[in-house]
Amino acid sequence: MQDEDLTNWLPRLTPNKGPRFLQIADALQAAVAIGSLSPGDRLPPQRHLAAQLGVDLTTVTRAYDEARRRNLLEGRGARGTYVAAPKVELTAILDLSMNTPPPPYGVDFDDMLRQGLSQVLMRADNELLMTYHLGGGSDSDRKAGSKWLAPMFGHLDSRQLVVCPGAQAAIAALILALTEPGDAILAEPSSYPGLRAAAAQFGRHIIAVEADEHGMVPAMLEQACRQHKPGLIYLNPTLQNPTAITMPERRRKELAGIAQRCNVRIVEDDPYWLLADAPPPPVATFAPEHVYYISTLSKCLTPGLRVAFVLIRDPQERERFLVALRSFALMVAPLTAALATQWILDGSADGLLQGVRKEARLRHRMARDILAGRYSGSGDGLHVWLELPAYWNSSQLARAADSSGIAVTPAEAFATGSVSVNAIRISLGSIKDRGRLQAGLQRLSHLLARRPESFSAAVV
């Protein structure tokens, strides 16, 4: 194609469609998809394109960089920039198994990261960013945590917060600090697998307490407390992992009351509260002295931050917790904590959160449309709990899905006792591209619609 014919893909830049460099990259991607641009076509020099679009050179440079990141362009030195040949995908697995926040459309994460780190390095003492921090976070980090938790609790004394390297570390430290080897931990029949892993590692055992459509059943919890004298109760009451149930306020109050009467501590692991649509108050608001509240940034913003805030009101218990935490995770990486604090305090974190919420809801609508009568999600959060037709069992379906290039998580992965439900968890955020997510959901829907086939392994 001649150079003069390569301008028909240029976008009409508008203020309400996100950053201009992303509009350019998106237009280029669309042009490649429909064939307006073909592999080997040479693009205009960046200065010429900037002049045609009426933008500065930096905007076009960033657009070309983004297009290269998407494997759309390749540079050929002095000869210019060309449309790249399609990248051969040697691993075509569509991952619906990992609960991570989806990349929000229109949010320039790379720019956010650069600006955030630039602000941190400009304002912080670099020596402090590269040394030990033993107090569970700096004063600024804890103040950022107080702001992050304000939607759940209103004003909080930041001295009651501990900054941890992720929720898994917080759960493990609470188990170490508050229980003894051989103690029981009560949890719902399907619960976060990290709880089971930590309990087994430390010599504690999980006892499943019956749950219904609203979560853990109060009468069964009280019976289990009196029978087993547990060291802890573990709850994940908002968009529960894996069932996606949000426990109503009345149930939360009932469980908090039981913890008080039986004098048992609750670990309230609440990673999805800020993603939910009008969730009830945390259990910790109803029994503040009996509940340890955990909120991680990994599920709302990005897993790479590895920052979680733990609310522990009693100072002696906070110190016990810190001693336990330091035995295996000395601190949050100071640079990471400083970046999280910068984003929370300057509002960037809230902008990213709103983008994740919007993208997650869009993906739930996609799942509801494709999975039709099988979808039973709440329309928000990161995952769907899909009960299976009788002719499939969850481990069998997971194997068949894997053979079809899809990764899902079977019910067995979440069982705290015997497997009580025939279901799989589908995670909607781990596939970055919506088109690939749609393809994965459609492939899964077709698999569910047919009865299992006999799979024979090849011998090589």
Attribute tags:
460 residues; Aspartate Aminotransferase, domain 2; alpha/beta; 3-stranded antiparallel beta sheet; globular; disordered C terminus; Arc Repressor Mutant, subunit A; Aspartate Aminotransferase, domain 1
Describe this entry's structure for a reader.
The protein is of the alpha/beta class and 460 residues long. It has 3 domains: 3-83, Arc Repressor Mutant, subunit A (Orthogonal Bundle); 94-107 and 349-449, Aspartate Aminotransferase, domain 1 (Alpha-Beta Complex); 110-348, Aspartate Aminotransferase, domain 2 (3-Layer(aba) Sandwich), CATH 3.40.640. It contains 15 helices and 16 strands. The strands form 5 sheets. The chain has a 7-stranded mixed beta sheet, sandwiched between helices. It starts with 19 loop residues before the first helix and ends in an 11-residue tail after the last helix. Residues 18-86 form the HTH gntR-type domain.
Blueprint (SSEs and pairs):
Layout lengths: L19 H15 L11 H8 L3 H13 L3 E3 L5 E3 L10 E2 L13 H15 L15 H10 L1 H4 L7 E4 L2 H12 L5 E4 L5 H9 L3 E4 L2 E2 L2 E2 L1 H11 L3 E4 L13 H14 L2 E5 L21 E6 L11 E4 L3 H12 L7 H13 L1 H24 L11 E5 L6 H10 L2 E2 L1 E2 L12 E5 L6 H16 L11
Parallel strand pairs: 3-14, 5-6, 5-9, 9-10, 10-11
Antiparallel strand pairs: 1-2, 4-12, 7-8, 11-12, 13-16, 15-16
Helix pairs in contact: 1-3, 2-3, 4-12, 5-12, 7-8, 7-11, 9-10, 13-15
Tell me briefly what this model is.
With 460 residues, the chain is an alpha/beta fold. It contains 15 helices and 16 strands.
CATH-assigned fold name of the largest domain: Aspartate Aminotransferase, domain 2
Low-confidence stretches: 455-460
- Could you describe the largest sheet, including whether it forms a barrel? 7 strands, mixed
- N- and C-termini, Cα separation: 47 Å
Instruction: Classify the secondary structure makeup into a structural class.
Output: alpha/beta
Query: What percentage of amino acids are in beta strands?
Result: 5-15%
CA-atom Rg in angstroms: 25 Å
Could you give the order of strands across the largest sheet? 4-12-11-10-9-5-6
In total, how many beta strands?
16
CATH hierarchy: architecture of the largest domain = 3-Layer(aba) Sandwich
Please, how many domains?
3
Helix content: 40-55%
